[in-house]
User: Which sequence fits this backbone?
């Protein structure tokens, strides 16, 4: 029998987050990180963004992007600390901190999107 | 025509030194000379005390793996001319305990290999009278790539995860598990999953990908591991939503 | 001559030389450093996720907060950070897509989709998703 441990689930979240962030994040960084702040393009008005994220489908996509990206980060961060710094003996602390941060971030995202809906 | 090239060979003689040292040897070479030919020249003509493993000298037996200028290589398939004008540094494969000179202990790999049951597992063997197990060319293609492995351990030597944590079952063992999992005659996938779904099985791997790059047989162990992760993850989701007995 | 051990097999032979990997192993080969950079891209993914949360918070608070957010996002250090972020996020996307055909076998009926086509599929999806977001988020 396969022993139960969370590794398969965490890996699935990591992979899904990798795909979603790869697909959606570059254009978002380009728009909100550079094009709007530097005035290359006119930013959308606040109402427009608000109307957009109030759309259930958009909210779901945005929520998935944020949650999965956080778990993607948590997984890579944890493994990089293990391998890069050879501090596997702190593995429990690292795992709690990284996945814990991802959970807190997800809760914040859920709250904000709920308020905006 | 015969040029010469310098080999810097790592020597470790446990009865006289506690750290490896390098000895330099000048060897002749032509464009056909492999690094292994250089080592044989040293052993035959210059210094008979040098020890290293080799057998087939044609990339089949997998015993001549060494670190050549820092990269894991089959020394019988790596040519001195490609390193001209030299020097060429020859060291034992990394990530393994060194027994002497260029010889490393392969026991760890051998023990891991049997854990994944790299043979055809049947719940019940069919009686001989019923004939052979059939396989179509397409079914052969499913696993053929993974069956090319010659157990040379270059992939282990390139893998930092194995270097950091020798408990990791490692690239070739997982690729060989896949070789049998994907064989239509095999029924041992469940047994192998038990070993591989542990943390020291597939989950320690972070897809550095170097195993695939150094593999002389294009086995692509990194690909095998990632694919196995997907299988194992789906399997574990399934067993989560449809628990035992369901 | 190969030295063979007679008698019982001893995995913990005292004379064998065991070396630890250096903490800086990832500086030893360009490929390892590349790997570390790839893994490091996750820090920028995380930074931009926080950035999106701030943006949502500003939108929730109202037009004034949104204007303040836009002003803050134009400050030099934020722009500088986002330039680096864009680089790493694109790097992440390219390396993740690169790995996809190696990590999964896609089938159409009984035929295996060639790895090149799987890769191309990812790029098409990437382009399509980017265009959709661009159009949706265009200013007035
Ligand atoms: S997978 Fe390749 S590198 Fe690894 S042992 Fe087999 S043949 Fe050698
Ligand atoms: S001597 Fe057999 S593989 Fe090199």
Assistant:
């Amino acid at each position: 029998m396969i022993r139960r441990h969370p590794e398969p689930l965490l890996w699935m979240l990591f992979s899904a987050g990798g795909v979603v962030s790869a697909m959606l994040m570059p254009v978002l960084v380009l728009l909100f990180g550079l094009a709007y702040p530097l005035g290359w393009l006119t930013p959308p008005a606040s109402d427009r963004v608000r109307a957009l994220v109030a759309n259930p489908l958009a909210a779901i996509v945005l929520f998935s992007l944020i949650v999965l990206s956080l778990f993607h980060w948590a997984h890579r961060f944890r493994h990089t600390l293990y391998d890069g710094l050879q501090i596997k003996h702190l593995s429990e602390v690292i795992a709690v901190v990284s996945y814990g941060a991802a959970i807190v971030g997800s809760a914040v995202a859920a709250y904000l999107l709920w308020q905006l809906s | 025509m015969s040029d010469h090239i310098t080999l810097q060979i790592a020597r470790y003689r446990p009865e006289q030194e506690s750290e490896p040292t390098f000895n330099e040897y000048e060897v002749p070479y032509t464009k056909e000379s492999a690094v292994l030919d250089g080592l044989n020249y040293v052993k035959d003509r210059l210094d008979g005390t040098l020890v290293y493993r080799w057998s087939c000298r044609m990339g089949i037996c997998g015993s001549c793996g060494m670190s050549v200028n820092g990269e894991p290589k089959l020394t019988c398939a790596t040519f001195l001319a490609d390193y001209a004008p030299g020097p060429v540094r020859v060291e034992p494969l990394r990530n393994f305990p060194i027994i002497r000179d260029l010889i490393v202990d392969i026991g760890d790999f051998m023990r891991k290999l049997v854990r994944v049951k790299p043979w055809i597992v049947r719940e019940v063997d069919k009686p001989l009278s019923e004939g052979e197990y059939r396989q179509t060319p397409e079914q052969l293609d499913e696993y053929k790539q993974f069956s090319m492995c010659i157990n040379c351990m270059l992939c282990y030597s390139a893998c930092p995860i194995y270097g950091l944590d020798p408990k990791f079952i490692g690239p070739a063992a997982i690729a060989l598990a896949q070789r049998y999992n994907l064989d239509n005659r095999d029924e041992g996938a469940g047994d192998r999953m038990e070993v591989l779904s542990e943390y020291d099985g597939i989950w320690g791997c972070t897809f550095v990908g170097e195993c695939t790059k150094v593999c002389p047989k294009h086995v692509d162990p990194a690909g095998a591991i990632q694919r196995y992760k997907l299988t194992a993850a789906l399997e574990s989701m399934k067993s989560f939503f449809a628990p035992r007995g369901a | 001559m190969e030295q063979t051990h007679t008698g019982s097999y001893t995995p913990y032979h005292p004379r064998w030389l065991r070396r630890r990997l250096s903490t800086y192993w990832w500086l030893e080969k360009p490929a390892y450093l590349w790997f570390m950079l790839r893994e490091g891209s996750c820090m920028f993914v995380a930074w931009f996720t926080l950035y999106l949360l701030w943006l949502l918070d500003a939108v929730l608070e109202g037009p004034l907060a949104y204007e303040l957010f836009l002003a803050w996002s134009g400050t030099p250090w934020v722009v500088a950070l986002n330039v680096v972020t864009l680089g790493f996020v694109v790097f992440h996307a390219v390396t993740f897509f690169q790995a996809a055909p190696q990590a999964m076998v896609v089938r159409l009926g009984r035929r295996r989709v060639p790895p090149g086509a799987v890769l191309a599929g990812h790029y098409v999806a990437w382009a399509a998703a980017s265009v959709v977001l661009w159009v949706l988020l265009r200013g007035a």
In short: Confidence is low (pLDDT under 50) at residues 1-9 of chain C. The two ends of chain C are 81 Å apart (CA to CA).
